Amino acid sequence: MMLPLDFDAIRRGFFTDQYFNNIRDMLEALSAEHATFTGHSPLAHIPKEAQKSHLPGDAVVEMQFFHKKEFTITCGIEHALEVLRHCCGFFDGEDFVNTYDQLEVEAVEEGSVSAARRPVLKIRGLYRHFGYLETVLLGILARETKVATNAYLLQKAAGSKPVLFFPARFDLPTTQAFDGYAYFVGVSTYNRLHRQNIAPLVATPAQASLWGGKATGTTAHALVMCFLRDTTAAMLEFARLMPPDVKRVALVDSNNDCVGDSVKVALAFFERFCALKERGSDGEAEKFRLFGVRADTAEDVVDLSLQPDGRPGVVVELTKKMRRALDALAHRPWQSQQKELAQRYFREIKIVASGGFNVEKIALFEREEACVDFYGVGSAYFGSGQCDYTADVVRVKVGGRWHQCAKVGRAPWENPDLRKVV
Question: How far apart are CA 251 and CA 59, in angstroms?
Answer without folding.
Answer: 61
